Amino acid sequence: MATYDFIFDGLGLRNWCGSSADDGGMTSMAQLLAQTSGGDVEVSPWETPFPSMDALHDACPSFPQSRELTSGLEQGFLAIKDSLKVVVDPLTQPLSWALNEALWVMQAVPWFVMIPLLMLVAWAVSRQMKLVGLVVICFGFLGFVDYYTYTMQTLAIIFVCAVTCVLLGVPIGIAMSRSDRVQRIMIPILDMLQTLPPFVYLIPLIFLFSVTEPKLYGIAIILYAIVPVVRLTDLGIRLVDPDVIEAADAFGMTKRQKLFNVQIPLALPNIMAGVNQTIMMSLAMVVIASLVSAPGLGVLVLRGIRSLELGVGLLSGLGIVLLAIILDRVTKAALARINVSQSR
Amino acid sequence: MTDTEIKISIRSLYKVFGDDPLPALQYVKGGLSKADLLETHNHVLGLNDINVDVPAGKTTVIMGLSGSGKSTLIRHLNRLIEPTAGEVLVNGDNILDYSEAQLRELRKHTMSMVFQKFALLPHRTVLQNAGLAPSVGGQKERQYADEARKWLDRVGLQGQGEQYPHQMSGGMQQRVGIARALTSNSDIMLMDEAFSALDPLIRTDMQGLLIELQAELQKTVVFITHDLDEALKLADHLVILKDGSVVQQGEPQYILLNPATPYIKDFVSDINRARVLRVRSVMTKAPDATGERAGEIDHDDTLESVIALSEGDTSLSYRVMKDGKLVGVLDMRKLVRALVPVEQSDDPENARLSG
Ligand SMILES: Nc1ncnc2c1ncn2[C@@H]1O[C@H](COP(=O)(O)OP(=O)(O)OP(=O)(O)O)[C@@H](O)[C@H]1O
Ligand SMILES: [Mg+2]
């Protein structure tokens, strides 16, 4: 009847399968088609189906269909969801709190205080008048076209997420650099985080948290953006000149002194390169995260797509580009300053 | 030299590099050579039964070709490398029994090290680099600044404390390296090919600096080099390594005149003997010599200076003085004979070796 009957017959599993292939329950599309076209049609060898779950189900009704696998996964996730929440919820609550606070502060501070403040930060980090000018022009423009609030929201989210990434990522990177075993365990995880399409992060998170909680998008952004800072911290520390490490040992430094006085300062250019990447990736993710209620410029992009408002989409896209340029230039300038002070 | 105090004593030290060094060590003790050990057991013989006494207040030079185990040996003295077997006694204590904390104290206060590639901290100023040892000990910059500045001045880096290492030339960076070692006020200074990365003129300067500092401070210096001229210039005690074993050690002049193996004979055949050999090594001891002499020379003069003095006249002979007292006589003919690497008696063998 079905192509793979012989497997179950051959293995003597016919009884386990049940007598006939159409004992109600779920039916596959192929079966429906076969039924409508009237009874069994002999399949030519050329069209032999791949031995997939559905094809095997045709031969043996007890064999699960593929959609039972996906629904099984879902059931499984829902089953552990509550116990997972008990652990994850309190751990991530500070993130919600920080995001809410940051969003509130960035919007509560009036623009004529905020923009000079941002100029000051740009100056402190880069020591370049050029970049301060760039900050004024970009934020001036975004404010002028009435996107000031959205920009501040995006900035607040990036700030919180990037800081969290650094706080978590640098210690993880240090642990990786100190132990080959930790590195072996972490690398596949980082590879996975890096290659997973960003939308996929959102799916289990939506089940886990309610969409109204800021930590939902916070976690998605952090998972996506933490990878470079971890990788580059590990790399940076492993690349520190072994001669210098040997000198540190020869003068009696403890492990701790070595870490804080030699390894981290010498790895700083690499760590900062990682921070730069992390910030840029947070910005990319913050747009996607607006699908799950992250406020900011991403919401405007989404509006542009949903209601086909071309102008809104383009202008908010430009806003994101401007923000990206500022963040990139300022962090790169900081990186360049570190490099100058310790190049040899 | 037997009556001088011994600062560091290395006793039957072995080092085998590899995954499972202890069984491999048994083969080495059984007489397996470095090449055979690598071939049959895939372990590298780093050091093979080293016994060296390092005299206090003197410069001990360890010399050997690349891969002979010099760096490995010097790193055992402050336990940057753990031995496979043996003892290292510093001031009579076996440092292999030390705990981590004791070891750090040893490295902070008793031994300092100068590196071939300088190994300065690039993110710290020259002054902060020079003060590394006190800063590791927890002192603030203003506490150690005076001491560090004093030693920077002493090595010729007046007023450059605020610079960063990358702003300096190699020679200057190595001066910082030496100042860093001196600032720790340790008795022992380990120098691993400290001058090998410098160009010849700077290198001569630095050797001069080290000799001056030694005359003034009398540290126990262990100096590593692969350059025989440098070794002979600096050494009070010379140790020659080959494939992880000591082939000969002793007073450099003595080794030069009495090479123990053909390997060393080969090694010393290329140097300018007139410049290296001293009158005391070739004179005839005769505290009460009489007779007509062409003049007086000091026991520590080089043969080169005596040849200049005699204007090449081989018929002369000189009275040799030490601290104003007569200690012997030097016949110019004997001097000339000492300039030829090996004595007449084993001439055929020499011809074969150098040919
Ligand atoms: N960590 C290690 N693992 C395995 N073998 C090693 C290790 N360190 C050194 N060796 C081997 O030990 C031997 C001595 O090395 P060492 O570095 O002490 O030589 P060296 O005399 O300092 O040479 P160079 O003049 O090139 O610095 C070499 O054969 C080297 O390959
Ligand atoms: Mg070496």
Automatic annotation (TrEMBL), chain A:
SUPFAM superfamilies: MetI-like. PROSITE patterns: ABC_TM1. It is a multi-pass membrane protein. One of its GO terms (biological process) is glycine betaine transport. One of its GO terms (cellular component) is ATP-binding cassette (ABC) transporter complex. The chain crosses the membrane at residues 102-124, 131-150, 156-177, 189-210, 216-233, 279-302, 308-327. The keyword rRNA-binding does not apply. InterPro entries: MetI-like, MetI-like_sf. GO terms for molecular function: amine transmembrane transporter activity; carnitine transmembrane transporter activity. It is found in: Cell membrane. It comes from the Bacteria. Residues 151-331 form the ABC transmembrane type-1 domain. The keyword Transmembrane applies. Keywords: Cell membrane, Membrane, Transmembrane, Transmembrane helix, Transport. Belongs to the binding-protein-dependent transport system permease family. This is Glycine betaine/proline transport system permease protein. It comes from Sulfitobacter brevis.
UniProtKB/TrEMBL annotation, chain B:
Residues 32-268 form the ABC transporter domain. It is a peripheral membrane protein. Keywords: ATP-binding, Cell inner membrane, Cell membrane, Membrane, Nucleotide-binding, Transport. GO terms for molecular function: ABC-type quaternary ammonium compound transporting activity; ATP binding; ATP hydrolysis activity. It is an enzyme of class 7 (translocase). It catalyses: a quaternary ammonium(out) + ATP + H2O = a quaternary ammonium(in) + ADP + phosphate + H(+). Its main location: membrane. InterPro entries: AAA+_ATPase, ABC_osmolyte_uptake_ATP-bind, ABC_transporter-like_ATP-bd, ABC_transporter-like_CS, Gly-betaine_transp_ATP-bd, P-loop_NTPase. GO terms for cellular component: plasma membrane. One of its GO terms (biological process) is response to osmotic stress. SUPFAM superfamilies: P-loop containing nucleoside triphosphate hydrolases. It is found in: Cell inner membrane. NCBIfam families: proV (TIGR01186). PANTHER family: GLYCINE BETAINE/PROLINE BETAINE TRANSPORT SYSTEM ATP-BINDING PROTEIN PROV, GLYCINE BETAINE_PROLINE BETAINE TRANSPORT SYSTEM ATP-BINDING PROTEIN PROV. Belongs to the ABC transporter superfamily. This is Quaternary amine transport ATP-binding protein. It comes from Sulfitobacter brevis. The lineage of its organism: Bacteria, Pseudomonadati, Pseudomonadota, Alphaproteobacteria, Rhodobacterales.
